[in-house]
Amino acid sequence: MQVTVEAINPVTKKVFIEIPSEQVDAEIEKTYANIQKKAKLQGFRPGKAPMQLVKRTYSDAMRDQVMRRFYEQTLFKALDEHKIEPIDSPTIESDILEPGSPFKYSALVEVMPEVQITDYTGLEVTREKYKFNPENIEGELKRMQENMAQLVPVDESAAVENGHKVTIDYMFSVEGFPEETSNEENAEIEVGANKLMPGFEEQLVGMKYGETKDITVTLPEGYRTSEAAGKDGVFKVTIKDIKRKELPELNDEFAQQFGEYGTMKELREKMSEYHQKQEMERIENEQKERVIQALIEKNPLEVPQSMVKRQLDHMLENLKNRLKSQHMSIEMMGLDDEGFRQRFRESAENKVKGGLLLMALVEKENISVTDEDLEQRYEQISGGNADMLGRIKEYYGTNRSNKNNLISEIKEDKAISLLLEKAVVTEVDSIERKSEQE
Q1: CA triplet 180, 184, 186: central angle to 5 degrees?
Q2: 328 and 271, same structural domain?
Q3: What are 361-379's pLDDT values in tens digits?
Q4: Residue 390 belongs to a domain
Q5: Start and end of every PPIase FKBP-type domain (predicted)?
């Protein structure tokens, strides 16, 4: 066979394979002979049908078998000979297999990039200064108060207001898109929480128990059916129940419901301490993200799209799990799987680039993990719980694959710490943050 390799880009190669006609003919005859032995044709006992009739009847089956066998016999042999290591299943394109002619096909193969990390010192990054804001504590107390609220039915003559929890039946439709039609019974919505399509919750305000109303919203960009984005969607909504929240008072009795606190003062002090810890962790994590982004900008590289796809799948699954725990879905956000992938593709690509560059830095700087490093990580995972610590050690001690993953995480953390040690860090009062799916 003849093999030619073309580099499409640093992470994609196209392998052209040609199998000579003599080999094609021999394989065709061999395949037809095997088919003839099992062929069941009317008027003939199994295995006794004339070869010409077998060829007329089973030509498609023959082609499928021969082509599949050639792929199996030649593709990975060719890849191995040319030292090409695919990171995903190759995409194959081929000619039609014909007797008396060579069989030609090509395979598009993605490979790991050769990462050359050269510029990783003196990266310029910003770090947010921590500043205590009492309003954050009061906001968190308000959320705790909301979570402990009792839902109380309103008077039947009362209208829906922001903050009410309503139960509705609805039918949804988009003119010209019958496939978008859907309906739901007993859907629960917190009005004013702004978790649904823009414009929907606002139009619930003022409706009364038993009332039916058409609510029209403009379907947002990134809507699950891209052709319907910008069109009007209509919800025919019926209010079945309206409840208001009855909030508990923020007093010492409220604080005591959280266990170890006797007064609101004690609860506020502990919350301030916890909030500072959380904020410092957030500032640290965001600074790490910024130094990785600076590393990507200084060391540009192309990455395989199959790796980006896997990262997107991981991000999407995480988001779905988080929303499911809140009894929500991505459809309620006006997205579907494809819309999510379009919106967060760049983010996923940067995560892949960052991971590959950090791996390269680990190798370049010979970063290793000691037993002491592992012990510290076990302690961190256990959160100071002695019983949990023992189980964690046993778990990683008996599961080699997960221990190797943990070692890789520690190496990556060390690589990030090295970047920050060598970076030029500027402290700023505040940094605008953008929402991103992890």
Answers
A1: 160
A2: yes
A3: 999 999 999 999 999 999 9
A4: yes
A5: 163-223
